[in-house]
UniProtKB/TrEMBL annotation:
Family matches, as InterPro entries: FtsK/SpoIIIE/SftA, FtsK_4TM, FtsK_alpha, FtsK_dom, Ftsk_gamma, P-loop_NTPase, WH-like_DNA-bd_sf, WH_DNA-bd_sf
Gene that produces this protein: ftsK
Domain FtsK: 444-648
Protein location: Cell membrane
Similarity-based family: Belongs to the FtsK/SpoIIIE/SftA family.
Swiss-Prot/TrEMBL GO biological process terms: cell division; chromosome segregation
Native source organism of the sequence: Arenibacter certesii
Protein name stated in the entry: DNA translocase FtsK
Length: 799
């Protein structure tokens, strides 16, 4: 086992160093060079044996062009032969030429280098063993063992004597036989036995056909030697059996455990089957290795290989060139106000520190010893009033710091431009799957998070507080960092105006339903189909992950890139899918459960397969952000909201009501709440970016989502053939008629069906005139009053 686990480890680094350093062309060149060098050395070594005496005088005359050597490779051959054969390993040096040739062959034809190291090790072992052996047995002809063989012999004999060296050589031979040729004493014995037996039987059969009586006699003598005297009585009969063939003794041997087991184990140790299995697994590895060797790793970006990422100059610095300008007077004034206000409430301050952010400055206070934090907390409103400024937020205490924070808005807020956050090295160097630069924190640090880790994001804020800018910041971040092959957006924009600019990059970055014309979905009824289609995509992706035996999209794509998944088996590189819904409240109002169910499903399950949801809403009330939605959106952003209740609904804490708007936001991914100034990206900037991308070569179409046959949103009745009805059609009709409620989710629940199937059945029920047309969030009208009417209707149909 230990040996097995070592193997790949030793193989991987050598393989990597080859693949990393050499391109395919260089491999061919180097391979050719090694092969030719091997051939050259082979001939020079060989001819060295015939010419070395003549060439002795030339050795010191290498630079002299007038001197010529007899060696096939002239002076080069004479010198190399002298160095490696004479002064080196003698005749076994020829093995070296083979090793060079084989290495060249591996490189030239890009054959996997797995066995190469082994060949080199054994080759070198052979060279040394033969060199010593020749040095030992043919001391008088030093050219056979070379100087190394001669000197090593001398050295070893000084310590171990002739007998010692002989035994060492013997041991070396045993090691070679056992390790390299899988030799074992058992196999030797059985081999000899088999040979002996077959030889004997051949002899017997030959002679019996000619002279039967003598053969019997010979057998008799043998039996007497081996078999016990009991059988002496009828030796001829026994002989007649044993004589026929050697098979009859076999049943006897079956009883004889030791012999049987011996034979079995011998064949197992040869283990042809085991070796075959190994070869099979290695072969699949080799194919992937070879594919990677030949073509490199799969590059999903290759189809749009010339794609250029948007440049930084498309973004506007918004007049901000340097950092934040600090107004010393303002700082001093605020500090004095804070100290005074707290003094009025008899709270002494031991220490105060200011951190200046783009929109707010954080004053960190360490109160005098003995002051209760709860006292300061209770005074929150009074302090805010005394400071007479909008948007004051008191954090008592600052988690993990033990100080009290008072955030006071700056008189002149600095705009955080998208350009500055995109250009920040934090974002540029971010090794994330879906990096998003939201803006800057209160300490003026660029705030970068990975959407893939969130894994879904809920955004809320009153109208005009910066939600749409925030969504644009998210999309822009991804556009600047991810290739069209790596991420796709599904954009839902009920307001119809916010995301329209992204239409220009439809064939690069957007995903849509196969039959829809517009990639950006503005029609609420179409949203349901899209969401359900995403659910199908999710199920399909899980199936692919299952087959590939990986746990998430990252591992899957890595495996696919390493060419370990065959595209012929349906595998493909999976882009991340980011679903953006700009006005969720509107959607919930019109479609209700039909939207909530697939969203909840996606939110619960889609993280591993790379579908991430970003949901924005103006109205963060509990009937929009329901418990099930909230539970699955741990990452939340709150822009300014109008009430403490709304703040609680989004963040589970107050604070969002005290923000100052214009991109001032709170972000939480669990417990900690971070105040961030959202990066500002204006519509003309987005237009420039989408123009820049849109003008480049694109895919033939937007990324197509799986087809979803759902409710017919236009309300036109569908003509379903009676014979094509679902097998559960009758049952579903009964459920609907009994409950007098025409909804797909009811069928889903009662009959335990998937959403898609239930949707299809509803369509069939509509076609059959059992339920009415689709009416948005309301359940469909049931047109059949009771079971009797249903029986009659279906009975009529059958006739
Ligand atoms: N990060 C920001 N920095 C500076 N100003 C901002 C920022 N975000 C938004 N604003 C200002 O606020 C205005 C409204 O922003 P935005 O359109 O994003 O609001 P909204 O929340 O989407 O509103 P609605 O819900 O009505 O669409 C912008 O036009 C801009 O002037």
């Amino acid at each position: 086992m230990a040996k097995k686990s070592k193997k790949p480890r030793s193989a991987t680094p050598t393989k990597k160093s080859f693949t990393l350093k050499l391109s395919k062309k260089n491999k061919v060149i180097l391979g050719g060079l090694l092969m030719l060098l091997g051939i050259a050395l082979f001939f020079s070594f060989l001819s060295f044996y015939f010419t070395w005496q003549d060439d002795q005088s030339v050795l010191s005359e290498f630079a002299n062009r007038n001197e010529q050597a007899q060696n096939l490779l002239n002076k080069f051959g004479a010198n190399v032969g002298h160095l490696i054969v004479y002064q080196g390993f003698g005749i076994s040096s020829i093995i070296l030429t083979f090793l060079l040739f084989i290495s060249g062959l591996h490189l030239f034809f890009s054959i996997s280098k797995k066995g190469l190291l082994r060949k080199w090790i054994w080759g070198l072992v052979f060279i040394i063993w033969f060199s010593i052996a020749f040095g030992f047995f043919a001391k008088s002809t030093p050219l056979l063992g070379g100087m190394v063989g001669y000197e090593l012999n001398d050295f070893l004999q000084d310590y171990g004597g002739k007998v010692g060296v002989f035994l060492m050589l013997l041991f070396g031979l045993i090691v070679i036989l056992v390790r390299l040729f899988q030799f074992s004493p058992d196999s030797a014995v059985s081999y000899i036995n088999k040979k002996g037996k077959s030889l004997a039987s051949e002899l017997k059969s030959n002679s019996s056909t000619k002279k039967a009586p003598t053969a019997i006699k010979i057998k008799e003598e043998k039996e007497e030697e081996i078999i016990t005297p009991k059988e002496e009585e009828g030796p001829i009969i026994i002989d007649a059996y044993t004589h026929k063939k050697d098979i009859p003794p076999l049943p006897k041997e079956e009883g004889d455990d030791s012999f049987q087991v011996n034979v079995g184990t011998e064949e197992d140790t040869i283990s042809m089957e085991v070796e075959k299995i190994k070869e099979e697994t290695e072969e699949t590895d080799n194919i992937a290795d070879r594919l990677v060797d030949d073509f490199g790793e799969f590059d999903p970006t290759l189809e749009l290989g010339n794609y250029k990422f948007p440049t930084l100059d498309l973004l506007d610095p918004h007049g901000v060139t340097g950092g934040i300008t600090i107004n010393q007077e303002e700082l001093e004034e605020n500090k004095n106000k804070i100290v005074e206000t707290l003094k009025n409430y008899k709270i002494g301050i031991a220490q105060i520190k200011a951190t200046i952010g783009p929109t707010v400055t954080l004053y960190e206070i360490v109160p005098d010893a003995g002051v209760r934090i709860s006292k300061i907390k209770n005074l929150e409103d009074d302090i805010a009033l005394s400071l007479a400024a909008l948007g004051i937020r008191i954090i008592a205490p600052i988690p993990g710091k033990g100080t009290i924070g008072i955030e006071v808005p700056n008189k002149n807020a600095t705009i955080v431009s998208m350009r500055s956050v995109i250009a920040s090295s934090k974002f540029q160097k971010a090794e994330m799957q879906l990096p998003i630069a939201f803006g800057k924190t209160i300490s003026n640090e660029t705030f970068v998070v990975d959407l893939a880790k969130m894994p879904h994001l809920l955004m809320a804020g009153a109208t005009g507080q910066g939600k749409s800018v925030g969504l644009n910041a998210v999309l822009t971040s991804l556009l600047y960092k991810k290739h069209p092959a790596e991420v796709k957006f599904v954009l839902i924009d009920p307001k119809k105006v916010e995301l329209t600019l992204f239409n220009k990059i439809e064939r690069h970055y957007l995903a849509k339903l196969p039959d829809s014309e517009e990639a950006i979905i503005t029609d609420n009824a179409k949203v349901i189909n899209t969401l359900n289609s995403l659910c199908i995509e999710m199920d399909n992706r899980y199936e692919l992950l299952k087959v590939a035996m990986v746990r998430n999209i990252k591992e899957y794509n890595a495996k696919f890139k390493a060419r370990k998944l065959n595209p012929n088996d349906g595998h493909m590189f999976l882009p991340y899918i980011v679903l953006v819904i700009d006005e969720f409240a509107d959607l919930i109002m019109t479609a209700g459960k039909e939207v909530e169910t697939p969203i909840a499903r996606l939110a619960q399950l889609a993280r591993a397969i790379g579908i991430h949801l970003i949901i924005a809403t103006q109205r963060p009330s509990v009937n929009v952000i329901t418990g099930i939605i909230k539970a699955n959106f741990p990452a939340r952003i709150a822009f300014r909201v109008t009430s403490k209740i709304d703040s609680r609904t989004i963040l589970d804490t107050q604070g969002a009501d005290q923000l100052i708007g214009r991109g001032d936001m709170l972000f939480t991914q669990g417990n900690e709440v971070t105040r961030i100034q959202c990066a500002f990206v204006d519509t003309p900037e987005v237009a420039k970016i989408t123009d820049f991308i849109g003008s480049q070569r694109a895919y033939p179409d937007a990324h197509l989502l799986p087809e979803y046959v759902g409710n017919d949103e236009s309300g036109t009745s569908i003509d379903y053939n009676v014979s094509e009805r679902d097998s559960k059609f009758r049952e579903a009709a009964e459920v609907i008629v009994i409950a007098q409620q025409g909804s797909a989710s009811l069928i889903q629940r009662k009959l335990k069906l998937g959403y898609n199937r239930a949707g299809r059945i509803i369509d069939q029920l509509e076609a059959a005139g059992i339920v009415g047309q689709f009416e948005g969030s309301k359940a469909r009208q049931v047109l059949v009053q009771d079971m009797a009417a249903l029986d009659q209707l279906l009975g009529d149909e059958a006739q």
